[in-house]
Amino acid sequence: MDLGIKGRSAIVCGASRGLGRACAESLAREGVQVLMAARRPDVLEKAAEEIRARTGAVIRTAAVDVTTPQGRAMLLSMLPDPDILVTNAGGPPPGDFRDWDRDAWIRALDANMLTPIELIKATVDQMISRKFGRIVNITSGAVKAPIDVLGLSNGARAGLTGFVAGLARKTVRHNVTINNLLPGPFDTDRIAAVLGGQAKAEGITLEQAKARRIADNPAGRFGDPSEFGDACAWICSAQAGYMTGQNILLDGGAFPGVL
């Protein structure tokens, strides 16, 4: 299926590893010119080189911290008017809410709520003027099924979800969609960190925590990041212009609800 986005431009944040990298690669495979952003230049450039070699796509890199105003300004100076924006930032650490002070909450909100909003604010009007735009926010399955040790993430990402719900209904008439892609357990560094926190809290080993999480998933496995990347690419496709304001859960069926 031709997704109709060849020659489009995209910013993908948190693109050096994990789900962000998978989104960058899937878009590149569709002929999108991708600007990959992440903090560590060595890891980022290595990932970009590998994607260039596999896809032949035009890939640029921006070694910036998008959670800072300076980082966002540098990123947007390189590509101020992307057709596609994929927001993504590492989740805050797990823990007990009793241990989190105001600064911990502000850091979580900056990374996982306010940064995506600032990036949307900086790019959405140009998308509207061109009558094409696709914005995908990588959030978390915890938005639908909160995880007790991820209170910082639960709160910040829920705030972003509420913001998107309102804005997405205003932009869609201009062929600009905004959707949230909610990962469940994928085989990434992030799931290892979350399971490590749970293991520590419960006094079990990391291997035990991982085995239990896999056993509890109807799919009997963790997701492959490439599956996530391909889902992101379709949401960014020309064919997906009638879907907006949605929270799309990729979790192997772990969420037990109907809605």
From TrEMBL:
- Please give one Pfam family short name: adh_short_C2
Q: Which family does it belong to?
A: Belongs to the short-chain dehydrogenases/reductases (SDR) family.
Q: What is this protein called?
A: 3-oxoacyl-ACP reductase
Coiled-coil region(s):
none
Q: What is the lineage of its organism?
A: Bacteria, Pseudomonadati, Pseudomonadota, Alphaproteobacteria, Rhodospirillales
Q: Which PANTHER family match?
A: 3-OXOACYL-(ACYL-CARRIER-PROTEIN) REDUCTASE, NADPH-DEPENDENT REDUCTASE BACG
Question: Source species, please?
Answer: Paramagnetospirillum kuznetsovii
